Amino acid sequence: MRPLALTMGEPAGIGAEISAGAWSALRATGPAFFLIDDATRGFAVPVRAIAGPEEAAAVFPDALPVLHRPLAAKPVAGQPDAANAPAVVAAITEAVELAKAGRVAGVVTNPIHKATLTEAGFRHPGHTEYLGEIAGTGVPPVMMLASAELRVVPVTVHEALAKAIARLTPELIAGTARITARALREEFGIAAPRLAVAGLNPHAGEAGTMGREDIEIVAPAVALLRAEGIDARGPVPPDSMFTALARPGYDAAICLYHDQALIPIKTLDMAGGVNVTLGLSIVRTSPDHGTALDIAGTGRADPSSLIAAIRLAAELAAARGTA
Question: Strand, coil or helix: what is 70?
Answer without folding.
Answer: coil
